[in-house]
Amino acid sequence: MTQAVRHDSMRARNLGVVLGEVRRSGPITRAALAEITGLTKTTVSKMVGDLIEAGMVAESGALRDGERGRPGTAVALSGRRVAALGLEINVDYLSACVVDLTLAVRLRYTQAVDNRRASPVETLSHLEELAHRAVEEARGEGLSIAGSTLAVPGPVDGGLVHAAPNLGWHDVRVSDLLGFPVELDNEANLAALGELWFGSVPGDFLHVSGEIGVGAGLVVGGTLFRGARGLAGELGHVVVSPDGPACRCGGRGCLEQYAGQDALLRAAGLAGVPELLAHLQAGERGSLEACQRAGQALGVALTSAVHLMDPGTIVLGGVFAPLFPWIRDPAHETMTSRLGVMRRAVPELTVSRLGGDAATLGAAGQVIHRVIANPWSHLATTRP
Amino acid sequence: MTQAVRHDSMRARNLGVVLGEVRRSGPITRAALAEITGLTKTTVSKMVGDLIEAGMVAESGALRDGERGRPGTAVALSGRRVAALGLEINVDYLSACVVDLTLAVRLRYTQAVDNRRASPVETLSHLEELAHRAVEEARGEGLSIAGSTLAVPGPVDGGLVHAAPNLGWHDVRVSDLLGFPVELDNEANLAALGELWFGSVPGDFLHVSGEIGVGAGLVVGGTLFRGARGLAGELGHVVVSPDGPACRCGGRGCLEQYAGQDALLRAAGLAGVPELLAHLQAGERGSLEACQRAGQALGVALTSAVHLMDPGTIVLGGVFAPLFPWIRDPAHETMTSRLGVMRRAVPELTVSRLGGDAATLGAAGQVIHRVIANPWSHLATTRP
């Protein structure tokens, strides 16, 4: 390493330390930053200057410094310039959102499309249009997009979607088919991170994403559990009944075949979720029974998940959020009757406030968290 | 904090750093230790002196120091004085082992006892006898026991076994019933740690302990995954068939009801594992079919576990180790047919070399790892 490279890497690390502390502490003076980080006041002032110039931090008025009593000008994270694009391809919709550096949601689009009837190229071209629209509108508000993450309903390996059986995708190299750079991640993982950063549940939970597929993301101590190859959390393919109906994954009797959106609508004899909700509210028996059975199957799969993963609480999101009043009780009763002896308490079942937006928000949030952890590489790309 | 306390806590930390480095590096000179740890040579020499006096480290001959070329006397971990006691209560046996500071196994006892026919007090009094025998024999070899951990077949909360349904234990406060201090942990967790420290599988695996109960411990990146409340890994109660036979846990159709040792022997119409092995080796049909069905049930439960936890490899231990030649294929075929589409590769099924000893070894290993991480508190208790 040359002297210059070493110096840059030290500056990069310190810049991350300073910005991280600004995020944690809220409005804070340069003097307090120097004291907390152990850096000199001169170094901190220079770095804060760079961060202000990059629009990542802004002065936020005078603040009296605790013990010393000398007022200083405080700085805080600024949401006025840097933002991130979150994208999602799911089986029956596309969505996009823009989140700024303070994690404020600046815009959100969802578009219903049946992506099963489209080729990967067509779907990705629709997504590209949606992304461009979002980026243009964000630019109109003075925002500059630092990066984007795309949530897909299947396991991901670098830029490749290995298998998204509900989309009919196999080995789709998304990075080659999109006209802009994007990070890929699994929808259920990003939904769990969305719940962690934008939701109301503290740091230990299993977030269940009910869509046409059913996925889950486990957060323990504020960290997403990904397993050895990043493929953990496929709750939708947990075996509910070993000789049950065949699933697109190649297995039989997977949870998706009982509680996935399509399976549920089929059991209720209905075409869409709004119709199902209307029937449930009207107390229509077939729909109530379909939800009862889906909730029981969910309870069986969650019993296995609780025994294996020991989550703090369980948060139901996606389509399970609007359906919560009808599936909560059968799922909870099934879990209680099966888990009661082994555990003092069965994990609580709660509902996500984010519903179907969790994955798109998590996707954007992931970019913001990376920028805050490593502002130097962001500065390097935005400088002339 | 007083000056003296602060100084002690700094010494304690540094002592752990020095001993940890000795363990990692093998024979190493004091000069090299000073260079790696950043401590002064005087400090390192004083600490090495204390560790030699405590019998935790010993001089191991001259070693030439890489660049400098000046030979120095190397020190290495010593197994001659400090040791740990590992204990296990399982449904049909008790066991004890003594492991020294270098993780060499110094002695091992297993005693077949049907603990279902005994009260917790009786079982713990048997265990106490076994422990005393082990400690006496270790003393005869000049070893001093730094601590002990006890593996139990059920979830643990501090000194309390909340529920070990296969033993018939509910809320047994072991710490009050044993005449010596012991740490409690779940058998499946300790077996996974035993595999990590004493086995042959690298750092990403799910270790399955087949006993009368079936448990599992997941190791990711060399760390045991415990879940939010320390209750993760209860593979034996993963639902194989939701309407299957009732289980002692309160559920139905749990894996234990198909592949636990009792269920397997019942299906084969035999009384013990040695008999079952003899029948299998003789190609007796009923026993082969019983193993086939147990292997398939294990494959269904592992399919759910792989989808949820994404382990690197799967290591079968306990009674599944001697039965491996007969249950591996049905389990692997079941997993392959169910997991194939979603995953490029199904996790490999391997056999533990430790068999039924994994938990007892993990229990002793846990004490040794704590002593090495914090030798100061060990010195404090052994000093006059």
From TrEMBL, chains A, B:
Belongs to the ROK (NagC/XylR) family. SUPFAM superfamilies: Actin-like ATPase domain, Winged helix' DNA-binding domain. It comes from the Bacteria. CDD domains: ASKHA_ATPase_ROK_BsXylR-like. Gene3D superfamilies: 3.30.420.40, Winged helix-like DNA-binding domain superfamily/Winged helix DNA-binding domain (1.10.10.10). This is ROK family transcriptional regulator. Residues 18-59 form the HTH marR-type domain. InterPro entries: ATPase_NBD (IPR043129), HTH_MarR-typ (IPR000835), ROK (IPR000600), WH-like_DNA-bd_sf (IPR036388), WH_DNA-bd_sf (IPR036390). It comes from Streptosporangium oxazolinicum.
